[in-house]
Specification:
The structure is a homodimer of 366-residue chains.
Chain A (H helix, E strand, L loop, with lengths): L4 E6 L7 H14 L5 E7 L1 H14 L3 H4 E5 L10 H7 L4 H10 L5 E4 L3 H12 L9 E8 L2 E6 L9 H19 L5 E5 L10 H12 L5 E6 L2 H5 L4 E3 L2 H25 L4 H21 L7 E4 L4 E4 L6 H16 L2 H11 L17 H7 L1
Parallel strand pairs in A: 1-2, 1-4, 2-3, 4-11, 6-9, 7-8, 7-9
Antiparallel strand pairs in A: 5-6, 5-10, 10-11
Helix pairs in contact in A: 1-2, 1-12, 4-6, 5-6, 7-8, 7-13
């Protein structure tokens, strides 16, 4: 655990660039203990310097915490990942990740193009433990707090072993960020009985039950268990997770619009809304799965956090804090330790499908 | 189109049985034109007669519209489908479907066990057009009206051809029930670009573009397009559809709870809530994807509509009305006509993957 964190920031990424990102850095610096963190700000020198000078008027100590690292060019929000990999060298996003690879920073944060950030992160940092692609985590508000849902879009097709990797990474993530010592874990399915669903979720269920992972695995959960907060971590393939997340974000938006309409539909309602305004606004903000900003890419040899492209300063500051929590944790060691257990069931644990059918064992011995 | 509809009712199904289902029949009879419909009520003779006598006190003409068909036994809400198929003969659910098979009724409605109803319907009615399993439709409230989403749970694994069948059936369903002459149609995916998603959705996208189906196909849509009402019909596999639907139902429930809490959290809020109560209640009811009751099983040789097990009289009456709309429509002929087009692309249309790769053509020529 480093004494003083260094966080590398893509100051040009996102819909707003330095005008929002630099104030977000100032905000993050204020909520973290003094002298606990420094920032590398990657971006067009004069633009970032300008934003920094403006922000320093309100937060004088900011200048001493930030080092501007001039870069050339910005990866467009609609650029293809392959293009970003070929042509992105030297841009603010590339350099933000490169600082982590070079050991100059403990984590990188960007609000830029998701596909490009993932491609550049894989290229520069490489995946840990023989994994293939990073998993994207959503921090989903529930009636009991926050549930971590992964993968929400990076891995479209996931076999049983991949889902088990998500379980291991999701538990380590939740412990690091939400401070739950032993997060509970569920596999998203269309029913809770063991025979429900397709072969991949059933296979992952068997592996999670039969291998002695240090996980509090509770079996299958269904879609309505997400908002209920039935478990701390919900594991699913990136296709299903992405659809579920966007469906919920769309419904939350619909809800806000309808709430506004319902409360302006007559004199009585308008008066009621005026009176109850504050609690209604707080509530509708709290419900949106998009309201908690900052999604890490898990599985890389290094910490990279993706912020929403449209995040405001408060949202981007939250993504920075999440990166700091991860950098302060032992997440990499925890993940590696549990990944190793894929290959070695505890003595006495019933083997799932021994022999060549068991992809986990096959892979570990390869 | 029959002059006088006959609708077969499983009077014992659901959480409440005849005490709710018979009043629901009375309610449905009131909102339909006089002499346009008759009902066959399947269930334990004395129990159904008793409920009918009670309901007839408020709706005297009900007795003349209903014929009680005594049956023995009820399929439990947690019975396995295989058990229901082996042992269900003679129960109220079985007999309700059998009336459709025998040509005595134009449609059947049940609030009983979903898996059992599907298994019995497949067994007695058989699938149309060489299809394998029925598709379940959700009527999803959106900011523009109602979107039909299918499949929401019956078909866990769906290849491209199956998704095309859902598109054909979903469009015919939406036209029949929601009276949209030419429903727009989208395929649920994790992005709108053609290269997004897995092979099955990409394959279905190609088939829908290249075959000259009489469909207003708009390409890929994402999860947040559901609540937005971006298209009238959204097609997906049963795994993704089930998770999306339950996620949204869970979120809608969470909204209602939070809304109640926000509005009782202080004197000002309580006063506001009191004033705005009616519009808030209407709104939170309107938003729940579970609020529009009645999900048909599409693809059978006959009309079977599943009601929520916990539906109240108003909800079950809505499922009856939906069954009547389907019975009045040409849905079966429309589906059959479009299914035939799977095999014969219009002259001039570019063939997708000609030769043995094209599952559609292969199957039609088999």
């Amino acid at each position: 655990m480093p004494d003083r964190l260094v966080i590398s920031i893509d100051a040009m990424g996102g819909d707003h660039g330095p005008a929002v990102i630099v104030p977000a850095v100032a905000r993050a610096a204020k909520i973290m203990p003094p002298d606990s963190v420094r920032f590398l700000l990657h971006g067009e020198g004069s633009v970032v310097e300008g934003a920094l000078n403006t922000a320093a008027l309100r937060t004088p100590r900011l200048a001493g915490l930030c080092e501007v690292r001039p870069s050339i060019g910005v990866i467009a929000m609609d650029a293809k990942p392959a293009h970003a990999m070929r042509r992105g060298n030297g841009t603010s996003m590339w350099n933000a990740v490169e600082s982590v690879r070079a050991g100059e920073a403990h984590a990188a944060v960007s609000a830029g193009n998701t596909g490009a950030l993932m491609a550049i992160s894989r290229l520069l940092l490489r995946m840990a433990g023989g994994m293939d692609r990073p998993a994207l985590v959503a921090n989903w508000p529930t009636s009991r707090g926050v549930t971590s849902v992964l993968d929400v879009g990076a891995n479209i097709i996931c076999d049983a072993e991949r889902l088990v990797e998500f379980a291991i990474m999701g538990a380590a993530f939740h412990r690091a960020v939400h401070k739950t010592p032993r997060p509970t874990l569920g596999l998203l399915n269309v029913g809770v009985e063991t025979e429900k669903g397709h072969e991949d979720v059933r296979g992952a269920d068997r592996l999670l039950r039969e291998h002695a992972f240090d996980l509090d695995y509770r079996g299958f959960v269904e879609g309505d268990d997400i908002a209920r907060g039935a478990v701390d971590v919900i594991v699913t393939d990136g296709f299903t997770g992405n659809v579920a997340l966007k469906t919920a974000e769309g419904l939350a938006r619909f809800f806000r619009t309808e709430l506004r309409n319902a409360l302006t539909s007559g004199a009585a309602s308008r008066l009621g809304a005026l009176i109850a305004r504050r609690s209604l606004r707080q509530m509708s903000e709290r419900l949106d799965p998009g309201s908690i900003n900052g999604g890490p890419f898990l599985g890389l040899n290094g910490i990279v956090v993706k912020s929403h492209g449209g995040a405001d300063a408060r949202g981007f500051a939250n993504a920075i804090r999440l990166a700091a929590d991860l950098a302060h944790s032992d997440i990499a060691a925890e993940i590696e330790r549990d990944l190793r257990k894929r290959a070695s069931p505890e003595p006495g644990a019933a083997p799932g499908q021994p022999g060549p059918q068991d992809a986990t064992q096959q892979r570990a011995s390869a």
